[in-house]
Each structure stands twice: as structure tokens, then as C-alpha cells.
From TrEMBL:
Gene3D superfamilies: MFS general substrate transporter like domains. It comes from the Bacteria. Residues 1-384 form the Major facilitator superfamily (MFS) profile domain. The keyword Ligase does not apply. It comes from Limosilactobacillus antri DSM 16041. This is Major facilitator superfamily (MFS) profile domain-containing protein. InterPro entries: MFS, MFS_dom, MFS_trans_sf, MFS_Transporter. PANTHER family: BYPASS OF STOP CODON PROTEIN 6.
Length: 385
């Protein structure tokens, strides 16, 4: 299954590659950073259209096929984005990246949950692979800029890795999807939307939005925020995102271990969301204290990007074990709404100031904490009853 995780290392590139090249892309397209931010929102549009479809298909078709479709779409995105000067074509490429993301998720998450007997600790490692990609890419972008090399090489590296992984996955045969009996499906359907479970479903869908928005908001604006508000150098500003990624990678292994030994998922979700909120508050107030900004970026990555979104999805899958693919699609459908709306909202706020655009993420962090707190209380009440 190493190839599945390598796909998410590449996806780590895809998540932030446009944001990390915003200035270079605006120069290449002869447009403003605001327009580049709007192009980035196309990723959310692609996810929005694709997630429910790919989620349903994952419960019906061969999941390896979906994964290959996702890889092909990402390859076209990587090559197409740096070979076009047309904003409309660039927006279409961003939409295609969103489709790629949804196809990979729909094929990969249910597969990993099923091979681990219904447990979700394997999906947490997906976040580790993504974080590794998010750590490497800013360093690559900064290195290219420092040596005045073409920014498009970062996209070409992404495309090359996809080609390598296609060859890696060719001989691998995926296990058939575990089928449930008709009786089990009927029982699951009858219980699926009754009483407090309706509220739990709504809260988890909302968390699909907030947990994705929290990470996207941070990764899109932290570099420019550090440069324009804290007046950091190019390397120091990009370094904050790399530290965020290091924190995420460390958090993934900690969370993986805690879930493996049976730690309560709700305790982890509440605690990590609270820590993310507090670290973001300190970071925004860090000012010129580079060491403090570095430390808070590390802690924010540890808490907000350690796999809490994937853990939330695991909780959701446990509510509907007969429809893991569809649940994955629905959960990330709301995440895709975040991918679409965050660049639009933050881009509009940036007209006032970059500081305002970045600081608004505090509202998202607070909402994620409250959602998990309420969900835990309702779930505990449901178990008691």
C-alpha cells in the first residue's frame, strides 16, 4: 500500500502548489494576487462537483480505477497549469485538480479502512504523507526562487512523481470490496437517520467543512502574512509552512499511536481542536518574535493537520458502516465547499489587509472546537441512553 501513501505525498504538493506560487503565477499571467486566489478556488469547485459522484462510484466500481483517474487528472493539472497563460484555462486546470483529489479520496479511504478491519488509524498516515509533501514543496519553491530558476519546475517534479507511481501501482491487485448482507443493509438504512443521529450527521458534515477550511486558510496565507505583516525574508516566511508540515508529520504518528491503543476519538478531537485555536491566537500576536511564530506554526500543524479531519471521517464511517464510500464523498463534499469558499472569502478580505485575511481563520478554529465538543456530548448522551 506504499503507492497509496505516495499519491498523498504528491497530493501534498497539489494542495499548496498554487498558493506557494501565487506571486510567480500572478506575474506569469499578468494579473493580481486576488485573481490567483480566485483561480485557486477552482480546486474547491472540482471537489464540489466530483465528491458525491466518486463517493457513490467507490461503493460500486473498482477503486483502483478511481485512483488511476485521480492520478491522471493531477498529471494534466501539473503540466497544464504552467503551460497556459489563459486565466480561464488555468481555472479549468484547478477544477481538474479538485476532481483528482476527490477520486483519490473515494478510492483510497474506504480501502484503508477495510484492510484494517474497520479501524481508521491507517487513514491517519495519509495525512502524514500529505504533510511530508507540504514540507518539501515550500523548500523547493524557495530554492527555485533563490537561484532564480523557473517556478514551473515544482509542477514538473509533481508530474514526474505521478508517472513513477503509476508504474509502481501497476502490479498491485486491490482486494474486493467487503459486501454486507441485504439484512444488514436494511438495518443500517433504518437506523441511519433517526433521532440524535441526524444531529450527529449534520455536525460531522459541518466539521468536514471547518477542518478543511482551517488548514486551507493557514496554508494559503501564512507565507504572505509573514512577509507583509511580520516582514520576514522569503526563506523565513516559507519556513513557517515547512514547520507547520513538520508539526503535522509528528502529530500524525502521535495520533496514529493513540488511536491504535484505543484512545477515545472524541477526547483527541476536542483536545487537538482547542490546541489549534490557542496556537493560532499566539501566532497572530507573535509579531517580530520569529522563534515564537516558528513554535506556534509547529504546534498548529501538530494539532490542526495531524489527522483530525481523517479521525472525524472515521467517526462518520462508524455511523454508516455499509456506505463508507458514500460517507467519504459526503464528508469531503463539505470539505470541497471550504476549498471553494475559503479563497473567495480570504481573497476578498485581503483587499482590506493581509492581516485581516489571515486572522479571520480564528473564527474557523473556534467553530471546529465547538462542533467537536457538542458532538461528543450528544454521542455520549446517545450511548448512555
Amino acid at each position: 500500500m506504499l503507492g497509496l501513501y505516495l499519491n498523498y505525498f504528491i497530493h501534498g504538493f497539489g494542495i499548496i502548489i498554487l498558493a506557494q506560487n501565487m506571486t510567480a503565477l500572478s506575474n506569469s499571467w499578468h494579473t493580481s494576487i486576488k485573481i490567483v486566489s480566485f483561480v485557486i478556488s477552482g480546486i474547491g469547485i472540482g471537489r464540489l462537483f466530483a465528491y458525491l459522484l466518486t463517493g457513490a462510484l467507490a461503493d460500486l466500481l473498482n477503486r483502483k480505477l478511481l485512483i488511476y483517474l485521480g492520478m491522471a487528472a493531477y498529471f494534466i493539472f501539473a503540466v497544464g497549469m504552467v503551460t497556459t497563460k489563459n486565466i480561464a484555462v488555468a481555472y479549468a486546470m484547478a477544477i481538474l485538480a479538485g476532481v483528482a483529489n476527490s477520486a483519490l479520496d473515494a478510492g483510497t479511504y474506504p480501502t484503508l479502512v477495510e484492510v484494517s478491519g474497520g479501524n481508521g488509524y491507517g487513514t491517519v498516515l495519509i495525512k502524514g504523507a500529505m504533510s511530508a509533501g507540504e514540507f518539501v514543496l515550500p523548500l523547493l519553491v524557495a530554492w527555485l526562487a533563490d537561484y532564480q530558476l523557473w517556478f514551473g519546475w515544482s509542477f514538473m517534479v509533481m508530474a514526474g512523481l505521478l508517472v513513477v507511481n503509476v508504474l509502481n501501482l501497476l502490479p498491485i491487485t486491490f482486494a474486493q470490496r467487503i459486501q454486507t448482507s441485504a439484512a444488514a443493509d436494511s438495518i443500517a438504512a433504518s437506523r441511519s437517520m433517526t433521532g440524535k443521529k441526524v444531529v450527529q450527521t449534520i455536525l460531522l458534515l459541518a466539521y468536514g467543512y471547518s477542518s478543511m477550511a482551517l488548514m486551507i486558510w493557514f496554508t494559503q496565507w501564512i507565507t504572505i502574512f509573514a512577509q507583509r505583516v511580520f516582514h520576514y525574508s522569503n526563506l523565513a516566511a516559507h519556513g513557517l509552512l515547512s514547520l507547520y508540515s513538520i508539526g503535522s508529520i509528528v502529530g500524525v504518528f502521535v495520533l496514529f499511536y493513540l488511536l491504535k491503543i484505543g484512545t477515545n476519538e472524541f477526547i483527541l478531537l476536542i483536545g487537538l481542536n482547542l490546541l489549534a485555536l490557542l496556537s493560532l491566537v499566539v501566532l497572530i500576536r507573535a509579531g517580530g518574535e520569529v522563534w515564537l511564530a516558528n513554535a506556534m506554526s509547529l504546534i498548529f500543524g501538530f494539532s490542526a493537520a495531524s489527522g483530525v479531519m481523517q479521525t472525524g471521517l472515521t467517526v462518520f464511517m462508524k455511523l454508516y458502516p455499509a456506505h463508507r464510500g458514500l460517507v467519504t464523498g459526503a464528508f469531503y463534499f463539505f470539505g470541497s465547499i471550504a476549498s471553494f469558499t475559503v479563497p473567495l472569502i480570504s481573497g476578498s478580505l485581503s483587499v482590506h489587509s493581509v492581516g485581516t485575511a489571515f486572522s479571520a481563520n480564528l473564527l474557523v478554529a473556534g467553530s471546529g472546537f465547538l462542533l467537536m465538543l457538542v458532538l461528543a456530548l450528544i454521542s455520549h448522551s446517545r450511548e448512555v441512553n
